[in-house]
Design a protein that fits this description.
The structure holds two protein chains of two kinds. Chain A is of the alpha+beta class. Chain A has two helices and five strands; from the N terminus they run αβββαββ. A five-stranded antiparallel sheet of chain A has the order 3-2-1-5-4. Chain A starts with 6 loop residues before the first helix and ends with a strand. In chain A, 41% of the residues are buried. Chain B is 40% helix and 20% strand. Chain B has nine helices and ten strands. Chain B has helices at residues 3-14, 44-53, 84-95, 125-128, 147-159, 171-183, 188-193, 207-223, 226-232; strands spanning 19-24, 30-34, 57-61, 64-71, 76-80, 99-103, 120-121, 138-142, 164-167, 194-195. In chain B, strand 1 (19-24) and strand 2 (30-34) form a beta hairpin. Chain B is elongated. Classes of the chains: A alpha+beta, B alpha/beta. Chain A: Residues 15-82 form the XdhC- CoxI domain.
């Protein structure tokens, strides 16, 4: 109910109307400590511009990369992020939780 | 998401009407359920429970996993009376995520010094309220103790179907208020909707404690089923 960052969906609609490829990422499940609640949205356009947040900054970069993929393929994807593991370049959540993010194309 | 679905969702949000987006996460197939259509939906129990709690989440239905994303308007609190309780109530309500507005025609009360960071309207309810677009996602409290201000405000809250309506005053004061409001066309059902004496019975004494009891009652009204509400009261 008490949702604050909703105008990003309006931005998604406007981007799509002006001819951009647009993807919508949504946090659909969380386990343990997760920075953003289930239902949080991030919208991404084909120039890599994004609004909103699914993790408060930890994995947005990876989500944007995957979203560009979804925009070109049109196929939705389910992404999962947990604690960053031994490979230091892997993105992850420093808070120790796990989140699952659904990424879909608009249009 | 289909662009038509996104446009429809944004239209519902702009009109402050709740809607739930149902997504089959395996296939990506989606549908938007507007609040008015929940009762006739096969998923009505899951949908109404999630809407009441304002919580998105995953559900299982007929062997498929569905994600319910709840888009509900930001709840608002309209406070009639820039009084001492209101000074405590406004920041508590803000911290709970409510958009708060204070209305009081008495400019000595409705001063920015007494209410920093809160939208303040120093007008009579008949002028102040219509532009506010008070609706079902609004909690409404009348705290002036002055019938000239509280009564017309309460009639407005009845007409706009606020989810919570409360008014300050003892049982005796409230009985007199009921008589006056009936005289101005309020129905028995309208009068019965007023929480008065206002707030949960937690033995509140100070303005801050009364503010806590009011906010607790508003929360219970927002979140609980009618039966659970009786137990909380």
């Amino acid at each position: 109910m008490l949702n604050r960052d909703e105008d990003i969906l309006k931005a998604a609609e406007d981007w799509h109307k002006s001819g951009h490829g647009v993807a919508l990422a949504t946090v659909v499940e969380t386990w343990g400590s997760a920075p953003r609640p289930v239902g949080s949205n991030l919208v991404i356009n084909d120039e890599g511009t994004f609004l909103g947040s699914v993790s408060g900054g930890c994995v947005e970069g990876a989500v944007v990369t995957e979203a560009l993929d979804v925009i070109s393929s049109g196929q939705p994807k389910m992404l999962e992020f947990g604690v960053a593991d031994e490979t230091a370049w892997n993105v992850g959540l420093s808070c120790g939780g796990t989140i699952r993010v659904f990424v879909e194309k608009v249009g | 998401m289909k662009s038509e679905t996104l446009a429809e969702l944004n239209a519902e949000r702009a009109a402050r009407r709740p809607a739930i987006l149902v997504t089959d996460v395996a296939s990506g197939v989606q549908r938007l359920v507007k609040a008015a259509d929940i009762a006739a939906d096969p998923l009505r129990n899951e949908l109404s429970a999630h809407l009441r709690m304002g919580k998105s989440g995953m559900v299982e239905a007929g062997g498929t996993r569905l994600f319910l994303n709840v888009y509900a308007p930001t709840a608002r609190l309209v406070i009639i009376g820039a009084v001492h309780i209101s000074q405590a109530l406004a920041p508590i309500a803000k911290s709970l995520g409510y958009d708060v507005t204070v209305v009081d025609p008495r400019t000595a009360f409705a001063s920015p010094e007494r209410f920093p960071d809160v939208p303040l309207i120093a007008e009579w309810p008949d002028v102040a309220l219509p532009p506010l677009n008070v609706d079902h996602y609004t909690a409404f409290v009348a705290l002036t103790h002055d019938p000239k201000i509280d009564d017309p405000a309460l009639l407005h809250a009845f007409a706009r179907d606020c989810f919570y309506i409360g008014a300050l005053g003892s049982r005796k004061t409230h009985a007199k208020r009921g008589d006056r409001l009936r005289g101005q066309g309020a129905s028995e059902a309208d009068i019965a909707r007023i929480h008065a004496p206002i707030g949960l019975a937690i033995g509140a004494v100070s303005p801050s404690e009364i503010a806590v009891s009011i906010m607790a009652q508003i929360t219970a009204t927002l979140r609980l089923l009618p039966k659970e509400k009786d137990q909380a009261a």
